[in-house]
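Quick one: examine this chain and its backbone structure tokens and tell me how the chain folds. Here goes:
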Amino acid sequence: MKYIKKIFPFVLPYKKYAFLNIFANIFYALFSTLSMVALIPMLKVMFGKEEPITETPKFEGLLHLGDFFNNYSNYYITTTSAEKGEVYTLTIIVILIISLFLLKNLFNYMGLFFIAYLRNGVLKDLRDKLYKKIVELPISFYSEKRKGDIIARMTSDVQEVQNSFLAVLELIVKEPLTIIFTIIMMVIISPKLTLFVFIFIPVSGYIISLIGKQLKKKSDRVQRENGHILSNLEETLTGLKIIKAFNAENRFTKFFQQSTQRHYKFSNDLMHRKNLASPVSEFLGIIVIAILLLYGGRMVILEGSLDGASFIAYMGLAYNILTPAKAISKASYEVKKGNAAAERVLSVLETKNPIRDKENAIVKDSFESGISINNISFKYDDYDVLKNFSIEVPKGKTIALVGQSGSGKSTIANLVTRFYDIERGEILIDGTNIKDISKESLRNLMGMVTQDAILFNETIKNNILIAKEDATDKEIIDALKIANAWEFVSELPKGIETNIGDSGNKLSGGQKQRLSIARAVLKNPPIMILDEATSALDTESEKLVQKALENMMKNRTSIVIAHRLSTIQNADNIIVMQRGEIVEQGKHNELLALNGTYKNLVEMQSFE
């Protein structure tokens, strides 16, 4: 129930459709009941041998409503048949029945028509909010999660919420009202027989609830395994070259089949449990119908306290309860199944973002003096990545960070941009702590080029426009020229309108990297962060990219994380790192003269 309450706020924007649905369902339930009751006069015309009534009957109160209905239908049939014949009377009653069934189905369609806007609107809003939350959450959140699991929550889990909770909205008025109106008419026709119906409803509800107790747990296992399947698929597509290169197709196929086998087993358990709802509720209903036939038949044949036409219509009404009762029992299963999906969706939506702007955070739109990194420390889990690290990055200078893998170089880039928050120490820009600056304005001051050129399955133009949405084609081409990318882009069939495929895989590594540099150039930020931007390139591509980087870094403040030391010879200050600490710093020639760690790194790369 608590999950329904949490999903309910998503329903509120569409409440007008909920009210229209309720309005339509009230009339559906009414006409559904009347369409069965209207059979009584027709049966009386065809088979009735009752004493004819020629005077208009008087209404003597609600307690005698059943007698009034019988007497009035008898009066109408008697007078109309006397004036225009029994065939005419039967025709009128048949037209009435058809009209009632038409109205019943019309209002049923109207109810479904309005609820469609609510169901699909909630689905859209839930996905929108979930996507917004996924984008807002820090990068650290995804280091602990599988991508496929997040995708499963966005797709199948949200769909399951719609199929479960929102399906209940269709039933919450229509089915209960149909049962209520039907029972009212059954009480009017025969209070005695209706006692059996009141016994049936709680007994069947209790039996069905016993069957559904384990449904949430079983559904949760299915949803989790579905996330694993999507994760396996996403990882396979990402690493397909490696899988093929190492002939690992069978190994990965085996892992995938193990996951689908578990999903198969869990899904069978879930479906077997869920599928019990309909046959059990129907069987219980038929038992009651059988008892009603025995007891009601006795009332008609032996006692004469109920006429045949009323008894047949009563049985139709009793059977009319079975369909909504089955729908309600099925809905209770769907809610239990939807609980698991809602829990997984809400767990993401309710995740607190640890990297948030302070109240009244400073909006900083200029960079004046420099960056100060003072005594910062940082851990990944229990592993110390940085320990009491301090450097100064004056405005207009280039600072290079070098060292072996795992020395903490890339962590500096992640902390300066506030992808992660530092645990101890502080990072200042123009003397202001970056935690006091709004994240948006902080990142507006910075451009980033990463080791992996992150591009999207879009045109070259749209990939570069990420940096500046309102840029003109001329600005884009100028940025491409600075990044040494215009030469190859201009030769493409559609130029900047060329789609570059998934992750830019229609291009070479060097071409992709130059596009990511062009994107950073277009942003034109005062601070540039280059995270091993050339380490994955061949020599020829490296020279082109290095030239592009030099063009971009002119008159900018730059933090360069370098694996290839050939790219940072001209840096104003080179910081040599080892296990999260500074072991040497200075210019290229000064560090070589020290004959220490930096010189060893240079020699290992055969660079003089």
Notes: The longest helix spans residues 86-136.
